[in-house]
Specification:
Layout: H1 3-20, H2 23-39, H3 41-47, H4 64-72, H5 75-81, H6 86-96, H7 102-111, H8 113-123, H9 136-164, H10 180-191, H11 195-204, H12 209-228, H13 235-243, H14 250-256, H15 264-280, H16 291-299
Helix pairs in contact: 1-2, 1-3, 1-4, 2-3, 4-7, 5-8, 6-9, 7-10, 9-10, 12-15
């Protein structure tokens, strides 16, 4: 028997336990998955497709606690299979985020973090040294990931619209009722956090020419000022703060990136550049648009 076949047999035993075992057995079964991963990651990844036979059998699992255990046991399998079996895992994820039981939805939401990691690694491939051109294979994977990400966002938006207009009969977790709508919103937050979502929107959202030109000028002005002040931050750090802004302190946080106790005239220059960046760079709260673009839309 090959190492892969032995690993597959281990997986069968583990998922048998998760699907029909007792609560006291779940923790040990999931620890066993972790041990197998760390003991022989290469063989684990080769044997991982076996779990694709179990995902369609989820409806055979009758008890909610087994269903939740089954889903939480998938995390390393999502990591292993996310690149090559994205659609299957995406469809299963969206299905279970609508499950009537809150524990199952929460388990799915946490496991689906690994699907987000798969997209992140392909949308923003690691290159060394920085600036090295992407290979043809990296470009192909990036283009495929962009389509998958766009499709996931579109499907999730449709579900959010649907459940925002409906009441649901959700189960309680402790004393809190995390509705299906809330679970979907939380998953939306997971897959739109970080730089990946900002860069995706910037790449796929049409920008008026005058905004694009001014944005490029501001980027250069910011880069020059960061070098002048010997800051440890870069332009992308500033773009991230602006995109994710959620309070009055964000503007001050950006100004502090340049702070070296300079004179009043330098501080005035910094404030002017940062204000322009705030007005011309995209904000998550404006659906990826800048305040300037929103103003242009209002006047159109």
């Amino acid at each position: 028997m090959t190492k892969r076949e032995k690993m597959e047999n281990e997986f069968r035993e583990i998922f048998g336990t998760l699907m029909s075992g007792e609560r006291s057995e779940f923790k040990q079964a999931k620890k066993r998955i972790d041990r197998l991963w760390h003991a022989d990651t290469e063989t684990f990844q080769k044997a991982a497709p076996l779990v694709l036979e179990y995902i369609p059998r989820f409806e055979e699992v009758k008890m909610p606690e087994n269903q939740a255990a089954f889903v939480s046991g998938l995390n390393l399998f999502y990591l292993s299979l996310g690149d090559d079996h994205f659609e299957t895992l995406k469809n299963f994820t969206l299905k279970l985020l609508q499950h009537p039981h809150g524990h199952v939805r929460e388990a799915m939401r946490h496991t689906a973090d690994w699907l987000h990691m798969s997209l992140s690694s392909r949308l923003r491939p690691f290159v060394y040294p920085a600036g090295k051109p992407l290979t043809d294979e990296q470009k192909r994977c990036m283009a495929e990931a962009e389509k998958q990400y766009a499709g996931l966002l579109k499907e999730l938006e449709a579900l959010l619209d649907k459940y925002d207009q409906e009441d649901d009969d959700s189960e309680y977790i402790d004393e809190m009722k995390p509705s299906i709508s809330k679970s979907l919103n939380q998953f939306w937050g997971q897959i739109t956090r970080g730089r990946m979502y900002r860069e995706f929107l910037e790449k796929t959202t049409p920008i008026p020419t005058e905004v694009y030109v001014r944005r490029k000028e501001i980027e250069q002005e910011l880069a020059d000022m960061l070098r002048k002040t010997k800051s440890d931050f870069d332009v992308d750090d500033i773009r991230d703060v602006i995109f994710n802004e959620d309070g009055s302190s964000d503007l001050q946080d950006i100004i502090s990136m340049f702070d070296r106790g300079g004179d009043v005239s330098e501080l005035s220059d910094i404030l002017e550049i940062v204000t322009d960046a705030w007005n011309y760079f995209p904000h998550r709260s404006l659906d990826g648009l800048s305040p300037t673009e929103k103003a242009l839309q209002a006047r159109a």
